[in-house]
Structures are given as structure tokens and as C-alpha cells.
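Entry type: protein chain
Record version: 2
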Amino acid sequence: MAVTRYLLTCACGRAISVASSQAGSTISCPDCGAAVDIPTIRGLRDLPIDEKPADRETVSTSSKSSWSLLLGLTAGICFLSLLISLGIGSYLGLQRIANPTPFTLEDELAYGDDMINSYQPSDLWDIWTFYRVEGLTIKKPSVYFETKRLLEVRDRWIWVSFITSAVALVGFIGTILVARGKR
């Protein structure tokens, strides 16, 4: 069943084809851009019927949304990654402030010296002969160097998360600007 369309005349003289489903809403004139109120269903009956609706340009009441599905998804993903990366970066940054480097290389060397000084000479001889016979095995890094490595990894993750936040923020703002530019 064909939808009946009516001719609504703008103040500039342009005849705009409207459907009964648009009754009571406001559209903008394609020529002058003025807001044109569409009458209610009763008021539409007083308007002339559009005999050739296919030939005329129709104007939608839902002023085309500037947000497409792709723009919405892009903005959502950018905003979500912005929140996640800011959260991770803030957490790691606060952890860095709350837990500064526990000790220095000098502390590690002093601890090693104290440990060696606590051995009896016979214990040191036993350790020496063990290494002479067995050889050096895979050596685990000292606590200082392992802690230092972990702190450096944490610092890299802080930078990565804040750079990701900056990129996500630029993407989010860009998406909003693209959507506004489509209006």
C-alpha cells in the first residue's frame, strides 16, 4: 500500500513532499534551511496531495544523525581504551610513588659482604671446592638486579599506557569532530 504524501509549502516558496508519518514534527527546507513545522494529521488533510512523490525531493524529519554505527563503535572503542589505559597507567604510577626502589647497589654489595663475612673459613673452603668440581651453574640474578629489571619493566608499561591514552584521546576527539563535520 502506497503512503500518501502531501505538499507542504515553505516560506521561500519551495514545495516539500511530506508523509503522514511525519505529522507534528519539524523539518528544514532543502532550499533555504528554515525550520518548517509539519501540521498534525488533521492539518495534513488540508494540504494538496503530492501526485508525483518519486520526482520530488523528500526531507526526513530525523535530521540525519551524524553518528553512524562505525563512528559510534570507533568512539566507544577509543573511549574504552582511554579509560583502561589511564587506569593502568595511574595504578602503576601510584605504585611507583608508593613503593620506591627498595635498596641500592651499595646495599646489595654490603649485604653480600656481610653474608660472606658470616661464613667460617671451613664453610668457604667447602663452597670453593664444590664450585671447582661442579663448575658454575646457571646463576640467578641478584635481588637488586632482578628488582631493578622489574622496576624498569613497570616504568615502560607506565609510558606505554599513557601513550595509548593519548592516542585513544586523539581518536575519540577526532571521531567526535568527524561526526560534527557531517552535520
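Comment: Residues 31 and 137 are 85 Å apart (CA to CA).
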